[in-house]
Amino acid sequence: MQTNVKVLTIIFLLLIMTNCKQTTTKLLDYPVTKKVSQTDDYFGTRVNDPYRWLENDTTAETKAWVQTEQKYTEDYLSKIGFRNKIMKRYKEILNYPKYFGGIKAGDYIFFSKNDGLQNQSVYYFRKGLDGEDKVFLDPNKLSSDGSVSVEFDGFSNDKKYLAYHINQGGSDWQTIYVMEIATQKQLNDKLEWIKFGSVAWKGNGFYYSRYNKPPKGMELSEKNEFEKVFYHKFGDKQENDQLVYEDKANPLMYLGSQVTEDERFLFISKSKGTDGVEIWFKELTNGQKDFKLLFPGFDLNYSIINNIGDKILVNTNNSAGNYKVILVDPAHPEKQNWKDIIPEKPEKLESAGMAGGKLFAGYLKDASTKIYQYSKDGKLDHEVILPSIGSASAIASFKEDGCAFYDFSSFTYPPSIFRYDIATGKSEIFKKAEIKVNIDDFETEQVFYPGKDGTKIPMFLIHKKGLKLDGSHPTLLYAYGGFNVSSTPFFSNSKIILYENDGVFALANIRGGGEYGEKWHKGGNLLNKQNCFDDFITAAEYLIDKKYTSKEKLAINGGSNGGLLVGAVMTQRPDLFKVCFPEVGVMDMLRFQKFTVGWGWTVEYGSSDSAKYFPYLYKYSPLHNIKDGIEYPATLILTADHDDRVVPAHSFKFAATLQEKQKGSNPVLIRIEINQGHGASGASLARIIESETDKWAFMFYNMGITPIYK
Hints:
Layout: H1 2-24, E1 39-42, E2 45-48, H2 60-78, H3 83-94, E3 98-105, E4 108-114, E5 122-127, E6 134-137, E7 148-155, E8 161-168, E9 173-180, E10 185-195, E11 200-202, E12 205-210, E13 228-233, E14 242-245, E15 254-259, E16 265-271, E17 278-283, E18 292-295, E19 302-308, E20 311-316, E21 324-328, E22 339-342, E23 348-355, E24 358-365, E25 368-374, E26 380-384, E27 391-392, E28 403-410, E29 413-421, E30 426-431, E31 442-450, E32 456-464, E33 475-478, H4 495-500, E34 504-508, H5 518-522, H6 530-545, E35 554-559, H7 561-572, E36 579-583, H8 602-605, H9 614-620, E37 634-640, H10 649-661, E38 668-673, H11 685-703
Parallel strand pairs: 33-34, 33-35, 35-36, 36-37, 37-38
Antiparallel strand pairs: 1-2, 3-4, 4-5, 5-6, 7-8, 8-9, 9-10, 11-12, 12-13, 13-14, 15-16, 16-17, 17-18, 19-20, 20-21, 21-22, 23-24, 24-25, 25-26, 27-28, 28-29, 29-30, 31-32, 32-34
Helix pairs in contact: 3-11, 6-7
C-alpha cells in the first residue's frame, strides 16, 4: 500500500512538472502578418515570397505592421524588471568626455568632443597648439532629437575653407555645405543627392559625385544609378555645376574624384561594386583635354596617395595580395615601368598616406595596428611607437606640416588623440579620455582556433581578470567577415555592462575580412562565403569547449554583412546559441541587388540573376532557410526605417517568417528604430543608449541572469 502511494505521488509530481513545462514552452502569440501569393522562378527553381508586400516600406499597410511589431516588442521588453537599472548604469559609464579625430589645417587644429551624454559629438578648433578650444560646429543645434549628424569632407588647399556634410535621420543621403574657417561663416553653397561622397579641392571650388534626384516617396528604396562627377564653384547654385565625368553605358558604377595636393592631377575612380577599381586621370596644368586610362578595371584595387612631381604614389594589391606602394609615371603607366617604393610584406598594408613630406604605412599584425615612417623613396625611418596593442587611425596631413594627429584605442584603452612630431618621431597625448570605470579590472587575450578546414583563425577575448573557466559566463560573440573589412581592437562603453556581470566579449577575425590580405578576403566571399559561417560556428564551439561559456549562455551579434552572418549561422546551427542579434542584416540574398546601392555588393556575394551564383545564395540565404518546426534561439532583430543601405525590408521579411515558423518559447522580436539609419551610423546617443540597453536586457533575461545593478 505504501509502495502504491509512493508510486502515485511520483506520478502526480511528474504530471505537475509536465504541466509546468508545457506552460513555460507555450508559443508566443505573435502578431499575424498577412501573406500574399508571390512566386519567382530562378532558373527553374520556384521560390515563394509571401511577405513581398513588406518591401513597400512607405505604404500605410507596412507602417501599420511596423507599429504593431514595435508595440509587441516594447510590451515584452517592458516586463524585464532590470531593464531600467541597466540603462541607469550605462549612462553612468558613458558620462565622461570623449575625443576623436584630431587634424591640423593651416594654423588650426580640429577635433570632436562629446562632454558625456550629448547626442552628437561637437567639433572644436583651436589656433595653434596653445590656443583656446572653441566650438566650431555643433550638430546638436541642427535637430531637436539629435537625428542630424555632421562629418568633415576636407579642407581647401589654402586652408581657408572646409566642406562638410550632414545626414538626416541616419539616411546615407548627404547634403554638402561650405564654411569659411576663420570667421565660421557658412557660405550659400548647398549640394544635395550625394552618397558616400567626398570633395576634391581645385581652385575656387571642388569636384564631387552625385545622383539624380529620386522619385518622391522612393528616396530610401530607389535603386541608385548613373552617378556623375561635377565641379562646383563657390557661390554657384548646384544646377549650374559643371559635368566633368559620366558613364552613360554603365549605370551601376560608383564614381569618385581626387586631386593631388598641388592640384596638378585629377583622378576619377570607377567601381562596379565594393571591390576592384579602374582609374582615369587628367593633368590639370598642361591643357590636357580628355581623361586617360591609368589603371584598367575592375579586378584589382588602386588607391592614389599623392604625387611626387610628375609621378604618382599608389597603394595597390596588383601582384601583392597584402598590398604595396608603387611609383607610377602616368605618361608610361604600364606595369613594367612601375617602381616598388614599399614592397609587399607578410603583414597586410591597411593604409598608406603622406604627412610633412614623409610616407606613413599602417600594417596589421594579427589584426592589430603597426605604423612605420618612410622617406618618399621608401627608406624606412622608424616605427611609430603606439601605446599598446590596439587600433590607430592613419597618419596624414599637409606636406608643409611638422606634426600630425592620430586616434588610438583598444579594448581596454578609451579613444584618445595623439600628436605626432614628424621630425623626432615621438608621440604625445593631445586629448585623453578620462573614463570613470577602472579599466585595469579587465584584460584582453588573443587566441587562435582551428576552423572547420583547419585554417588558423584569431579571436580576441575580453573579460575580468582571473576569469574562472567553468562554462558559466554570459558571452557575446561578434564578427563581420566580409568586404575586405578588418575587425581590429576597439573600445566599447557598452561592453562594460557585460564585463561587470562576469561576461566575455569575443571578436572572431573570420575569413572574408581583410586582416590577412586578399587571400583572407577571397577565402570568404562569392562561392567561398560558407567559410565565414563555418569560421563563426567553430568560434562558438571553441568558446564552449574551452569552458568560457555554454550553449545556454552564448549570444551572437553582427551588423549589416555581420547581420547576414548571424542570420545564416542561426538557421544552420539553431542548437548552438541561446540568443541572436542580427542587426540591419542582408537577409534576402535573392533580392538585395534590387534596392538602393545593393547592386554594388554583387562583387562580394554574386547575384541571384546569375545561374552560377543563385544555387549557392539560395542555400545559405537566411530568409529562405528558416524551417517549420525548429526551435530557433531567442532572437531580437534590429533595423531602422531610414536605413537606405540595407533596406529594412530584409529584416521585416525575416522577422515575419521567423515568427510564423518558430517552435517553442524562445521569443522572436523585431526592434525598429524610427528616423534612424544603418546601425549606429549618425544615431543620437540617446537612441544608442536605448538600443544597447534593450539588447543587454533581452540577452540577460533569456539567459536567466539577473545583473548586479541595484
